[in-house]
Write a structure and sequence with these properties.
Helix content: over 70%
Number of domains: 1
Radius of gyration: 26 Å
Distance between the termini: 62 Å
Number of strands: 2
Shape: elongated
Length: 525
Amino acid sequence: MELENLNQIENKGAGMRTELLRIGGAILFLVGIMLFIGMTTAHTPNQTFLIVSAVIGGYMALNIGANDVANNVGPAVGSQALTLTGAILIAMIFESAGALIAGGEVVSTIKKGIIDPSLINDTDTFVWLMLAALLAAAIWLNTATFFGAPVSTTHSIVGGVLGAGIAAGGWNIANWAVFGKIAASWIISPMLGGLIAAAFLYFIKRSMTYQEDMLAAAKKVVPLLIAIMAWAFSTYLILKGLKKIWKVDFLTAGSVGFAFALILYFAVRPFINKAAKSLENNKFSVNKLFTIPLIFAAALLSFAHGANDVANAVGPLAAINDALSHGGEIAKKAAIPIWVMLIGALGLSLGLALYGAKLIKTVGTEITELDKMRAFCVSMAAAITVIIASQLGLPVSSTHIAVGAIFGVGFLREYLKRTDAKRLQEIRTHHENLDPEKTEAFLKTFKKASVAKKSVMLAELKEQAKNSETDFTKRERKTLKKVYQKELVKRSHVYKIAAAWIITVPLSALLAAMLYFTIRGIMIP
């Protein structure tokens, strides 16, 4: 007993030391920002405000790295295509590369046009507003990460700007039409992501894993899926990840993507055929063919995220820097100095390295079980949904899409499991008066049969016993449904994440308004 107690104490001590190292690393990063800005901006007006803003911007970047990046690599980790350490390293490299290479030189001072900056002519008021919005969004992201809830960083900063803007300029300052679109995206994003991911998974099951010769089917289908992935990710990367250095329309991006897809289709076919020769004819073996595509998907999603979402961290900071440096009229666009972009890039990477593991595990393993095929479908949904939404002018969240896609594959599996269980029960009921060995032999043949052959077997079975009552009762269906729902999708995570999504904007807005009044009260005697 004493030895057990000592082991518990030692484990708690190790956990505390790890947590202290994480906190220490984050503090060192923020102190480094403070010292660097202090030494390089000695002659800047209102230097103290710039230092405080830079530290808060770094804090925001840390929290984006800890919370948002998990959506890009979580499925690959959950499916064991990547180790946790490997995923973090890949994400750090490609997030930083995306932020620095394609993050852009100019950023909108007001994210998504949620408020009208022309109604705020006072520079001090604008700086207080942006500072409150940035800090509120960072605090909410920190809280969400602590509770293991993946939330939208874009919605967090939008809520912060909305709340602080209303506090500074009244209700008329808000663009309620834009806010309505953002609110609609709470439903649009996860629904689109879930439907597309489920559609891909169903196609994979019908075309490969439900076939008698899975390897022969895989030789035909996997190159096609990889080609679709090449089109989706290259188009997504051009439209979203590279839009600040190469702005093109959808037709151009899609054409370039199609060229990549065509080349890759013919390039990977011989490799897939060669790999299939050493594999067994089962689902586990076919899963291995998706390992490398998943690694590339994680890297490309991270690059696009770093390029596109670094503005959530550095956009308000760039706006504050621009306002303090030039004063006067508040510009709708602000230049991003290299030091601002570096804070964003380093913060994203460090936040992921220090605190990203928790959300990666939540996204990758705790919502539903992901194998490589399911993870591939989630990654595909993330890219394709953004493409569709951007063409329809719908504001969507990459976080909501990815998590919605995971829910989608989980709920599809529940439906298929319930359907399969019902069929097996019907077969057993039809054979209840026969030899048990014959029943099990029929079941074994049925499970290995293709979709078409299963339909024929069931039709023949029902024809043989069409006068008997063999279907489930309503109570039996409900019981079976509950059993598989509990097994495949954790409802506690569904409710927790949905609640976090719903309260993100209003909570960030309320917190930002309170912080704005606090800052204003401190600055005005």
